[in-house]
Amino acid sequence: MRIASSVEAIRNIRTKGAGRKMGNTEDGRNEDFGTSYYQLVNDNDILTKFRPLLIGGGYKVRDVDGKLEVRDPSIGWETPWQHIKHDNFLDCQRWHSILFNLFSMTMPRNQSFVPSACQQCWKVVARPKTLLGLFSLMELQKKLDHPSKCGIEIRQYVHGLYGGYFYNHSIEEGLECYKLVRSEIDKAEHLGPDTPVILKRGCTEYENRCGPSDNWIVTQRQLHIETLINEWVVRDVTLREQPEYAILYVHKKWIEFAYQNGDGTYLNFTGGKPLYRPLVTYHHLVDSTDEEREEVFSKFKRKPLFGYDL
Q1: Which residues of the chain carry a pLDDT beneath 70?
Q2: Which of 136, 251, 277, 304 is packed most tightly, with the most Cβ within 10 A?
Q3: Residues in contact with 3: Cβ distance below 8 Å, sequence separation at least 6, in sequence order
């Protein structure tokens, strides 16, 4: 059977980055098939990674040009974050959700990569210690009018209950932002100098998977994958603002989260009333008189109804 013409056609479509030691199968094996046709198509296969999203209906193949796009773009409402200001530069759906989650995370650990655009993302992170501090940080982010978000930390690998993030495009810009945020937080009510503020590179998930951020590199394999994604996946450039009811939903979750985690400042948002009725407790009887204890004990005396009853 003649396949030479098909092979040549595929090579003409894409040869950059293809070749030896580029194949990566679903089970994480990295095989070298040389310059074979299988190696070529495997290097250029993105449908295997997108298949669950296509079957699930989250993405579709656009009929006008065959590109992959989100089927029904919408505002993400199930989130712990209030997005104060968006940045058109950031494309976390493409960089994090697709390149990192679908591709990098499914590769052997020593081949995982941090998307090249994410390596130019520098975040100033503030860690309020109370719910009052979180709301104070929210107002500060509005005042500074810098690309940012804030909310509760529900990720297991993040140390702290609350967080606020300020996004920057370079380490120089990040340092300037850090100085400003540090100064403003030092003066802010319910925050102050004991509120931790740091400058970090990229997402925490990247360091957990790929190691310290000062050792990140950009590989040829990575550039090949990114080129394919940039060519075949449609970017949604619409900046969507959270509607007021979605923000109220997020704030409700913040208050319930504070209660759940023992942050008593939530009472400032409930009129001083606890979210749930306090439990009846009895340990105070240890310090009561015999008569007081007997009066309480008499209320609970009973005869067992069944043989297994205590």
Answers
A1: 1-31, 309-310
A2: 136
A3: 37
